[in-house]
């Protein structure tokens, strides 16, 4: 690592020694930027780089709420407003017991460059809470969301910071959050994205991350002279991103054979058909069940409980052509990556945020696997969120076909951008470097224009 980037990373380790996820995200970014550090004017860019890694604003607050038994509960809330050089802060809210400042900071950091790649006017931020919506009633989730928004509302706005959904935050939670914001501010404004199309939301928003992931991967395959037709695919997770990744892959002629959740994974050698996917959508979005129920409904599928997986991620243990990690960060280790390569996988596209460790990425690159990093591959969700913001600003709603066409255009544009920057500044096909460098240059130039702030 260059002296400048090394010094910046050492400072992060000293200032935030416990923030391992944030350190990982920054290290990956700096390793890419390292390759152009001598090619940019020192007086300009090197003074921006350390500012880019420090959030503009970090907000932490308590969230008191009452459960159905009348017992007062208290959770911790976060909003990290990372960078507003390209527009209002934009990024999701995550509700999960694992949420802490390190995770929110790494997500906000990644979001800055992901948003920049879309070409839309959006800065980067992220937020959430260690509240666990699993096992909670609708009334409990509503009371939590109302308490959370009561504090968050003073820090966000349509031209300031526009949150969206993430893990644990779907249409139900967005509705509760928006309703409380409207009550507090007496404004019906585009302060949240992911809203229902019935009251200001965009069509294709639930599908956007999964669809966009597949669109970008399809562009990579097209460049390699092939397509998804007849390909066997592994998908992890079973939430929103995973569901619509499966849907679009199936529409493009691929066969998906796995899904997972925190309890384990299923392997369906006959493929997850439209009928089976509809069962998963009902299971996860309405009844909020576990993926084990899939094998009970479809006996041809096998279920592997996480407790019996001997420390390995079973979802990556099957022969396939392509893999789509859509669950959570660091779900593909170096060992997992080696198993994927040995099982014949030739394309990996990240639907989750930073689902592959740095060591895992190195395995893919050394073995010639086409690898699409999250900040490019899963940008479809925030891209349509940006389109939702545009629709809200003009008080109109676009058709589903128009939104989908715009999403395809944006994802193809992202692929061209990261391909060009990879070939110009690093190695052809190194899309990690291509995405990081393209994002860095765009944000850095904006910061310089605005006075290094």
Give the beta-strand count: 13
Report the CATH C-level class of the domain at 208-377.
Alpha Beta
Distance between the termini: 26 Å
* Number of contiguous helices: 16
Class of secondary structure makeup: alpha/beta
**How large a portion of the residues is in β-strands, by DSSP E?**
5-15%
- Overall spatial form: globular
Structure description:
With 453 residues, this protein is an alpha/beta fold. Among the domains are: 56-186, 3-Layer(aba) Sandwich (Rossmann fold); 208-377, Rossmann fold. 47% of the residues lie in helices and 15% in strands. It has helices spanning 3-15, 20-33, 42-53, 101-118, 138-152, 171-185, 208-223, 240-251, 274-285, 292-297, 334-342, 358-366, 374-377, 380-394, 400-425, 431-449, and strands spanning 57-66, 72-83, 89-95, 124-129, 161-165, 232-235, 255-256, 258-261, 264-267, 302-305, 322-324, 347-349, 370-372. The strands form 3 sheets. Strands 1-2-4-3-5 form a 5-stranded mixed beta sheet, sandwiched between helices. β8 and β9 (264-267) form a beta hairpin. α2 (20-33) packs across α16 and α5 (138-152) packs across α6 (171-185). The longest helix is centred in the last third of the chain and has 26 residues, at 400-425. The model has no long low-confidence stretch (mean pLDDT 95).
Give the topology, please:
Blueprint: H1 3-15, H2 20-33, H3 42-53, E1 57-66, E2 72-83, E3 89-95, H4 101-118, E4 124-129, H5 138-152, E5 161-165, H6 171-185, H7 208-223, E6 232-235, H8 240-251, E7 255-256, E8 258-261, E9 264-267, H9 274-285, H10 292-297, E10 302-305, E11 322-324, H11 334-342, E12 347-349, H12 358-366, E13 370-372, H13 374-377, H14 380-394, H15 400-425, H16 431-449
Parallel strand pairs: 3-4, 3-5, 6-7, 6-11, 11-12, 12-13
Antiparallel strand pairs: 1-2, 2-4, 8-9, 9-10
